[in-house]
Amino acid sequence: MEVINALGRRKAAIARVYISDGKGNISINNRDVKEYFPFRQLQYIVNQPLEITNTIGKYDIKVNLQGGGVKGQAEALRLAIARGLVKIDPETKNVLKTNKFLTRDPREVERKKPGRPKARKRFQFSKR
Question: Helix H segments across the chain?
Fold first, then answer.
């Protein structure tokens, strides 16, 4: 199998994934997944598409992650891995889609407007 690449985004995070046959190693920015995401919850988010498709230990995954916070990065990586698995085996698309791993979360931070302290908050109104 040649190397399959996929892209995932969430908030300001971008994950580029390169999937190849291997022993199940996941390296993020040349670091192990357990070192990059020390919290179990984030590791669980990253491994969800692999667990559902029963492909843990089948593929080596090399990831370039940038931007955003740790939660956004983990969710961007989950989307990228799910998209890569669909490229490898199109039959997994149904399972991943029903678990909403192929849906890109469109929510972004709203920009700050001029003349206001935040995006929607206004300064206190004074009648006199």
Answer: 33-36, 40-52, 70-88, 93-98
